[in-house]
Amino acid sequence: MKFEVAKLNLNTLLEYLSTTTGILINLHDVSGILSCPPFDIERRFKVHTLGFCDIAKSTHKGFLLCTSCKNTVCKMALRGVKPFFGVCPYGLLELVYPIKINNRTECILFLGNTTENLTLTAKKAEAACRKTDVDFTKLSEKFGGIKAADRKIMLKTAEITKEFISLAYHKNRRSITYSARPNKIAEEMKLYADEYFDRPLTLKKMAEIYFMNEKYLGRLFINQIGQTFHSYINMRRLESAENLLRATDKTVLEISLECGFNSISYFNREFMKTYGKTPSEYRKI
After folding, report:
1. Mind listing the pLDDT tens digit for each residue in 229-245?
2. 3-state secondary structure of 11
3. Cα angle vertex 214, ends 213, 220, to 5°?
């Protein structure tokens, strides 16, 4: 299947394919190609996000399980040359499709939100929820949105995407430059932190996600954002805590845990540094 590249961009293609198939589609950048204008796509096609997946990652253990699984699968995709199917810890079938151009893996395409047996998916999801403290009742409410798997359609969808990226690459190869990647990654890290600041998110975890040296990534974030990744995460957690102190009746301990602080004493100390009062004192005024 051929596309007229000049009349179609990657984002439009992914939108069309995800809408018509009901399959969750996202691309994981491993080379910097998604920082180049011909391949600029919306964040929702870069992050593995879905109602089902968001609930699966709603606890610290659930978040670590999902991100560790993603990192392992990415490493498998980089080592191998062929696409492969696999079942995630919560029972969903996914297609992992490395996109190679000129014998180099540029990005990894993930197609998911499918199942070949909903009963088995439910059993696997329930077992995972017990291990990760995820609310299985909430997760099971999302079962209705899971697509019945058709491996042929999934493979065809991946092939169409790969062909388009290859065509676009060769059409624009003289203008493609990866020089913008560092700034793009720092911005992506910031957006990732905005979304998951209440989870066990660290610079080391981000280095695993982007397959980059942890120290280099830390310097990159400081240069682009103006503060360390750790301090940015803390800032977002404290902002959320401050809002909860003012708008809810939750206890200080509940707020501390909900915002990602595992130690109440550390939360009190950091809050005092920023707001000049302890959380309890701040709430009173």
Report:
1. 999 999 999 999 999 99
2. helix
3. 90
